[in-house]
Amino acid sequence: MTLNEPVPDFTLPATGGQQIQLSALRGAPLVLYFYPRDATPGCTDESLQFKASFEEFRTLGCTILGLSRDSIASHERFRAKLELPFHLLSDTEEVVCGLFDVIKEKTLYGKPVRGIERSTFVIDATGILRQEWRKVAVPHHAQAVLDVVKSLSSHS
Questions:
Q1: Burial class (CB in 10 A: 0-12, 13-18, 19+), 75
Q2: Residue 149: helix, strand or coil by DSSP?
Q3: 43 in catalytic set
Q4: Domain boundary assignment for the chain
């Protein structure tokens, strides 16, 4: 994915028994955040930040979607436990992860593993990638994303 270029369409299963298609979300900004794993400390903190800012995003007409390689069943448990007001997408086949190039070699307990590099993308109302964060540090991240969405809204 390249900044200021259209994001190719995709469809993934989501919580709530939904199939979410990117092109169906056009007309409003979208925050797509990729996270390594449900119910881990960093992923929980990040999701709770987006939950805490949810009403501000919604006021701007912005959709928030979380995405990981976890199963829908795992996502449903994670979403219910945290009472997340937005959906989580399951990319078990790594199709969208590949599109955004977020699968990286990492080291876990001294061993190499493939996993999602925590990343966030803002897609504008026309489907253009406007901002990306890679190797996200969780503290204050949701606020930084919200600031970008606000700036998009003020320019439209």
A1: buried
A2: helix
A3: yes
A4: 11-150
- Whole-model pTM: value is 0.94
Residuewise pLDDT in 10s, the chain (156 residues): 799 999 999 999 999 999 999 999 999 999 999 999 999 999 999 999 999 999 999 999 999 999 999 999 999 999 999 999 999 999 999 999 999 999 999 887 888 989 999 999 999 999 999 999 999 999 999 999 999 999 997 765
Which of 20, 30, 43, 129 is catalytic? The answer is 43
- Which amino acid, residue 150? K
**CATH number 3.30.470.20 is the correct assignment for the domain at 11-150:** no
Cβ atoms of residues 96 and 67 within 8 Å = yes
CB–CB of 105/133 below 8 Å?
A: no
Whole-angstrom distance, CA of residue 35 vs CA of residue 12: 16
- Answer whether 85's CB lies under 8 Å from 66's CB: no
